[in-house]
């Protein structure tokens, strides 16, 4: 796989240092954010693996979302708690044992998909999420 650096930020660029944060002792810390972009050129075999990882993670995320949208009442009545990242991770183990195509992919990215969903729910119920008018 070829990796090409597509960094278009010059090393001596004029940076906006306006977002500053003061410390307790009166010192000012300037926050400088600099990003790098890389363009991947995967082989055909690597592209298949990327798609397999993405498909399995998407399936885990969508299944977990479906559970949270449709089964939270039954889960609360049965356990007295709410559906959480930890409870869905326990179910991920069972799901991986049932489907070889999900087990073939690293569980780390699948757990991250569950973390992302849990964080989205936490942000929504804390009022930090932006809800679009087109969401149905």
TrEMBL record:
Pfam families: HTH_OrfB_IS605. InterPro entries: Transposase_put_HTH (IPR021027). Residues 33-74 form the Transposase putative helix-turn-helix domain. This is Transposase putative helix-turn-helix domain-containing protein. It comes from Bradyrhizobium iriomotense. The lineage of its organism: Bacteria, Pseudomonadati, Pseudomonadota, Alphaproteobacteria, Hyphomicrobiales.
